[in-house]
From TrEMBL:
InterPro entries: CoA-transferase_III_domain (IPR050483), CoA-Trfase_fam_III (IPR003673), CoA-Trfase_III_dom3_sf (IPR044855), CoA-Trfase_III_dom_1_sf (IPR023606)
Transmembrane segments: none
Keyword rRNA processing part of the UniProt annotation: no
Protein name: Crotonobetainyl-CoA:carnitine CoA-transferase CaiB-like acyl-CoA transferase
Molecular-function GO terms, alphabetical: CoA-transferase activity
Keyword Transferase: yes
Keywords (A to Z) from UniProt: Transferase
Pfam family, one: CoA_transf_3
């Protein structure tokens, strides 16, 4: 069980005001929370972040919301009411970072755009994540993960040859935007320590996925041709990918000549090492259609367990293809403590995958369970902004804020 009091993390003392929802922003703010920042998540007072309604549920709490919103406080505000916007601006004036992932222009219309908040807090780091960015011809189009994947080109290569295009199993369009926004935020925090001034960090999901193309974009720039789909195989390295066994598949990755030689010996085909059709990278790439059937014909004779043991014996990079459940239960995950347990006040113990970053061999900070909608509204207003209980109750009566009644006391 995680004890939230043990570790504060390197971002302790940094406050994030998070207006984002769904995935591209919440993943970023969760990473910042994992690193020790205080994250105040602003949600609509009726239903909160849309993901609170995404099934499946456990005791009314969505798997999706749980996965992306640990270690955050929930403050429910109606940003269409002046009183709600006033509270939001007061919180922004006391925050280090504001994060939002609305379409360009939405926050400006609410009176919560970068220029408005910067005037009250010059050191504020304001991060905007959107599908396409303010200068894109697509700026006003709705963007979700699969849209970014389609426009980035990644779906065109994420398939076996001759098969329909397929999206990545991971929501990388959303997550890439989150990851790059964290990079930008941390860089801006460092700069602010020197200059005292904040920045407007802007990240587009589509830009982020295109930036992650790596060598795929260079294949196009150098050859003038788009990379073709190769499934689990590699665009320029052979042999690499999944190979059939008598009862499944095994991953083999021969990125160096040494590993290729080891693999040939593992197959009992040392003659392939000096065969001019397969002796060098370029030759194997040009003769992929000749080499891979030779490998397949040998490997399919024995089962997966046999090949995993034999490949390891010959020091060939290899892996079984695990399900999500198998991946979470493997010894590596247990050894690294990647699954942590937190306690939720209503549904009890929750297992969650913690962040991967370690400092001195330990996670940056300890997690706490996702908050119930509006659970922290009154506490934040009273403790951080100095509101009285009567003022909170008046805002509740006007439906400018939402809160779980009795969630705090006068002294917090």
């Amino acid at each position: 069980m995680t004890d939230n009091s043990e570790s504060k993390g390197p971002l302790s003392g940094i406050r994030v005001l998070d207006f984002s929802r769904i995935l591209s922003g919440p993943y970023a703010s969760m990473v910042l929370a994992d690193l020790g920042a205080e994250v105040i998540k602003v949600e609509p007072i009726e239903k909160g972040d849309e993901t609170r309604g995404f099934p499946p549920f456990r005791d009314g709490m969505s798997h999706y919301y749980i996965a992306l919103n640990r270690s955050k406080k929930s403050v429910a505000l109606d940003l269409k009411k002046p009183e709600g916007v006033k509270v939001a601006r007061e919180l922004a004036a006391r925050s280090d970072i504001v994060l939002e992932n609305f379409r360009p222009g939405v926050m400006d219309r609410l009176g919560l755009g970068h220029e408005a908040l910067k005037a009250e807090n010059p050191g504020l780091i304001y991060c905007s994540i959107s599908g396409f960015g303010a200068n894109s011809p697509h700026r006003d189009r709705p963007a979700f993960d699969i849209v970014a994947q389609a426009l980035s080109g990644v779906m065109s290569v994420n398939r076996e040859p001759g098969q329909p295009p397929n999206k990545l199993g991971l929501p990388l369009g959303d997550m890439a935007g989150s990851i790059f926004s964290v990079f930008g935020i941390l860089a801006a925090l460092h700069e602010r320590d020197v200059t005292g001034h904040g920045r407007h960090v802007e990240v587009a999901m589509l830009d982020s996925l295109i930036a992650m193309q790596g060598y795929l974009s260079q294949i196009y720039f150098l050859t003038g041709e788009s990379p073709k789909p190769v499934g689990t195989k590699h665009q320029s390295i052979v042999p690499y990918g999944s190979f059939p066994t008598s009862d499944g598949y095994v991953i083999v990755a021969c990125l160096t000549e040494r590993f290729w030689h080891n693999f040939a010996r593992c197959l009992g085909r040392e003659d392939l090492i000096d065969d001019p059709r397969f002796s060098l990278y370029q030759a194997r790439l040009e003769n992929r259609d000749l080499l891979e059937p030779i490998i397949n014909e040998r490997m399919i004779r024995d089962d997966t367990a046999y090949w995993l043991e034999r490949l390891s014996t010959f020091d060939v990079p290899n892996a079984p293809i695990l399900s999500i459940g198998e991946a979470l239960e493997q010894d590596h995950v247990k050894a690294h403590g990647l699954v942590e347990t937190v306690r939720h006040p209503e549904i009890g113990e929750l297992k969650m995958v913690r962040g991967p970053i370690l400092f001195d061999g330990k996670p940056a900070s300890n997690a706490f369970a996702p908050s119930r909608l509006g659970e922290d509204t009154q506490a934040v207003l009273m403790e951080e902004l100095g509101y009285s209980r009567e003022e909170c109750e008046e805002l509740l009566a006007r439906s400018a804020i939402g809160a779980r009644m009795g969630s705090c006391t006068q002294d917090g």
